[in-house]
Amino acid sequence: MSGEAPLPSTVGVILAGGLARRMGGGDKPLRTLGGKTILDHVIARVAPQCAALTLNANGDPARFAPWGLPVEPDSVEGFVGPLAGVLAGMDWAARTRPDCRWLLSVAADCPFLPEDLVERLHAAREAEDADVAVAASDGQSHPVIALWRVSLREDLRRALLEENMRKIDRWTARYKTATVEWPVAPLDPFFNANAPEDIALAAKLLGG
After folding, report:
1. Is the link from the previous residue into 186 a cis peptide, with omega within 30 of 0?
2. For the chain, N or C: smaller number of CB within 10 Å?
3. Distance between alpha carbon 39 and the CA centroid of its chain, in Å?
4. Which helix (H) or strand (E) element contains residue 91?
5. CB distance 79 to 19 below 8 Å
């Protein structure tokens, strides 16, 4: 990006607050892939693109101590879905990095995230004057992998607490949203390891 304006300062939240039912419970990002945890792969992809990172996870935060990231539990109780994790990330950003007006959210089970994720999402939302920019591949959007205006956090809190909002795309439909498509060759950068068989496939992809 030589000669171009620098990207707006952006912080990131890695969403690991789910129940991992298809994986048989436990923490999906702590499963091993290619000699490292899936979380290691996610951090390696995302950390260089963000000014700071937090991990959204529920339960005892000590299990994530080796990574040295702040751990933010869901802002709404009851495992209500990824929007609660996005809100937790927004609250953390507003509290600790008020200079950063943008939050990147990514799933903790996506080991192949693109290295130009923040750059392309910012370019799209700026071109379309959007409040949200969402990643997509193979014609399918991935609403948990997105760039958000931190200033939307009180709107999101109201939607969660007063409207029982749960689906991300229902909430983002209220705002100008840009969608950015990534190619799926040689592999889908948003491949997620939801089940044990996905771990085996991811290992093959990593090896290839």
Report:
1. yes
2. C
3. 12
4. helix 82-96
5. yes
AA letter at 26: G
Per-residue pLDDT of the chain (208 residues), as tens digits, is 334 557 889 999 999 976 443 333 457 789 888 889 999 999 999 999 999 999 999 999 999 999 999 999 998 888 789 999 999 999 999 999 999 999 999 999 999 999 999 999 999 999 999 999 999 999 999 999 999 999 999 999 999 999 999 999 999 999 999 999 999 988 899 998 766 666 666 666 666 4
Token pair 């507003």: residue: 94
Is 38 within 8 Å of 30 (Cβ atoms)?
Answer: yes
How would you label 120-157 residue by residue, b for 16+ Cβ within 10 Å and e otherwise?
A: bbbbbbeeeebbbbbbebeeebbbbbbbbbbebbeebb
Q: Which positions ≥6 away from 208 have C-beta within 8 Å?
A: 186, 187
**What domains appear along the chain, each with residue ranges and CATH number?**
10-207 (3.90.550.10)
Integer Cα distance of 48 and 118 in angstroms: 10
What residue has token string 């030589």? 2
**C-alpha separations of 106 from 144, 164, 207 in Å:** 6, 22, 23
How many angstroms from the chain centroid is the CA of residue 69? 15
